[in-house]
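@channel anyone free to eyeball this complex?
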Amino acid sequence: MGSRNTLSHLAKPIVSGAGLALLSGCNRHQSALAPFGEDAAAIEHLTIVMVVGAVVIAIALALLMRWAVKSPEGSLTLISGERLIVILGAILPAVLLLGLLVYSLPQMRPHPVEAADLKIDVTGEQFWWRVRYAPPGGEPVISANAIRIPVGRTVLFRLTASDVVHSFWIPGLAGKMDMIPGRVNELPVKATKPGVYRGQCTEFCGLSHAWMAFEVVAMEPAAFDRWLAAERRPAKPIDGRGRALFASYGCGGCHAIGGTDQSGTVGPDLTHIAARRSIGAGALPVTQDALVRFIRASSEVKPGSRMPAFPQMSEGDARDIARYLGELR
Amino acid sequence: MIRKLHSHIGSLQATLWTLIVAPTTWAVHFLFSYLWAAVYCAKTGQFAEEPLVYWVGTGLALLVIAISGYIAVIQSRVPGDPAPHEHSTESDRLRFIAYSTMLLAGLSFIGVIFTAAPVLILEDCR
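replying in thread with the prediction:
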């Protein structure tokens, strides 16, 4: 009686918890079930075929077991029993598995990549993403923590890491690819639907692994070309107290801002930080308050981050720097 | 002609050595697949457009396994002692080893096809 009560008490939280977990799959922002790229669509299709196949086989097997248990002894002769085992136990599984293999293998072929395709180098760092666009015949463009790609064109991601193993995953675009120090892994993709999506590090890489994410913006090709041309230019030069403070606190030792003499390469490039959708690689929104908080105590937001805290910095100084950064569009 | 061949096969010895012909061929083909792809990709930098050597190697492996299986099928049907064939007599021993060889040949045949399919369908060095 007691155990039944415990069970019925547990049922509600279990059911609602499972329901919530299932509902979280409904977001179209970061979901392999809401593909916006050819590869993710192929993976989704393959998953559906495999799941349906597995369910059909499981039901058929259950029915066969039921028949085997229920039917009276002697329903089959020795020979027909052996034949049944050979057909259902050997030939049918071999044919089914071969069918699924031959069906799934062509979908694993990577996109052919031409020399004229856009290459994007992404380096995983604890706990952010160094991004370098290498358009064919053009100067590379440095960015961080956000990736924009043109719809309908093949893009080749060249993935590596600088410290530990990370993994690059944009669930709606393609499968996962590990980022390994000292090695470049290639991931060709093709987006099919414009929109704003999300990617996430999927190999545990340290304290702030869960805070290592990035926005992915899939754009129409013409808009992408315009954006890339604009991204190559520095943000409008702004002079003010914030800019001077940025220099005097030594922020440029780690961060670069195009068009200024701040050229550090240890941390993310901040040339167009205000045009991104988040700071700290998906940790906080781009607001003045969030910038102030991140500047003064980044490790409170991202434990294990290499950016030092600035407890000695006054709120006023932090606000001025945040205002300056907020203008870097 | 066929009957003569069958009676000749029936008189062949079936041993533990003949039993492992098919799985050994499967293992060698498995190694061959990796070596062929690695050497070809390393030497030319791209996957072969017509992997003739690989086709021939796979065909050869399947042929050896098929022959081993064919011999085993005939041997497992050699008339002898009455069923069940589980006594320690010469003919039951032959039937048992032949039947095992036949099953292993079937498994190895599928194994070789499953190994060859990715090589021939993926066509990629990455």
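from a first look: Chain B has one domain: 15-122.
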